Amino acid sequence: MDLSILDHIQPLFNLEFVSRSSGSDQSEPSDDYSFDYSINLEDDFKNCPSKTPFEYVPHAIVNISKHRQEIRENYNQHFHEIKKDIKVIIVDWCIRVYLEMSLSKETLFLGIYILNTILRIKSVKRCHLQLVAATSLWIASKIEEASTPTLSDFVTVCGNNYSTREFYACEKCILRYMNYDIAIATHQFYIDLALGTFDASESYKMSVEIISLVSLFLDDLTDSPNIASAILSLAASISHENDSIWKLSFPINEPSVMILVSQLSDNFKEQLAFKNSIISKKFKTMNDSICRNNAI
Fold it and tell me: What are the BP-aspect GO terms (predicted)?
């Protein structure tokens, strides 16, 4: 796999800025209390370079990378080990809530990022895990959703185990612990950025989507660009897609990517085994119940 891909995204189309001339449509003040609010866009923008949205990507990535580095430094200073079984259960629950409430992928990924950060920097009691997870998704939905689910929706999805007052209190704690720094570029952002550079096959997109969900079980979600690159590379191997056809507009660390590819592969196998064990237990329970009924 060719991972030395640091090329910038090339513009897919050209957009020319069309300025609006103020013309003679300026209003004259009729009295002492009237003001002229007309704006001459031609004068304001004539010295600004005309760029397509994709040409702004490298500059945006630089700023995002600086922000991400600050977050990682603070994140590593307050490391707190998460029990693996607890992490699996709560992330799996979040994914089911995401499907049940028809939330966007951005909401899910940002919500899991917030949850993961809180679990890493604070010790959360088991009885509060569902509240913290639901509140994290609620906060993320306020940022990512066009139509934000109501708080009562999240209260209901938690089986009415928590009151609205507890949700508000939990929200305040999460925002305070994260220093209100929740507008994060998750690895889903980098994946969407890369997939916008070529016409991917359906099998490749499906592979990326499945592995992206598996990636939410990783211990550290702050290394977004490398996680995204690992997902894209692993998906390319699974779907036999030529991974050289996509180009990244963000820098990656190849050794870190290879480690993440290995971790994602292990996580995929673990999740598959975990789901199969649950299905086997359910079938065994059903079979035992049928045998008892037949014996009677």
Answer: G1/S transition of mitotic cell cycle
